[in-house]
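We include the pair:
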Amino acid sequence: MARTTHAAVIGAALALLAGCGGSDESSSGAPRFVDEATSAGIDHVYAGEFEFFVGGGVAAFDCTGDGKDELYFAGGTNPAALYRNESPTGGALRFTAVPSSVTDLTEVTGAYPIDIDSDGVTDLAVLRRGSNVLLRGLGDCAFEDATEAFGIDGGNDWTVAFSATWEGSNALPTLAFGSYLTIEDRTKCGDSRLLRPVDDAAYADPIALSPAYCTLSILFSDWGGSGRRDLRVANDRHYYREGSEQLWRIASDEPPREFTEADGWKQLQIWGMGIASHDLTGDGLPEVFITSQGDNKLQTLEAGPDRPT
């Protein structure tokens, strides 16, 4: 696994934004991306040693209501940073830092935009090497730490993955946090955790998703068209012998349960890195694409939605 670099962290987001704006290229030509980080006003580095060599990245979301995405960068051992998008429509990219002790957190490995309380204002789930944080959006790119207010146990893990889904009529979403190695022992995989709401305003204690095999990505997905979103987990085989990729059954009226070979689940051992899911065949059921340090995997159901095979 290559350590995330300055270019990797900021280049992807800014190149994407540059590619989506005006261009001299013909609309029928191949997309062309230009690194405009410096000229756009971005001055940020994701740094750190071993415990930050996975993670890093950027969350893009509109926190001003003008239809333009702001950027929140993980920083590793450096502070994370929020940048306001002040780019004129159709013009050059321009971002301005929004310093705040609430958002300028250290030990951040990633962040995910989510409207956790459905108030129409984007919140941020901030993943850390340490205690995870839930930042509630207040509007105009202001945030408050609402971790305690929501009863969220932030843990003390090396968290690098996140996904969320709403179960049934719950007002709050179910949250899944994926852990890599344990902080205490770099040879052992840390348990990922599932947080379910206890009522309309707070969360119950986390449920450990064990066994765990050094998770790098997680994704809730209705793989069988049942209306139930189960949790797909991509794991790094570098640190396990008997483990594999995983699928957890997440039903609102029962504890999470790992699918096994008896359920039709086939063991797959790869250096799992990322997950994407989309219906590529038009049958209404999503395929799954898993990136890996080795060969990537594209999976589709063999015999319909009854079994995860």
Notes: The first strand starts at residue 58 and ends at 61. Residues 1-109 form one domain.
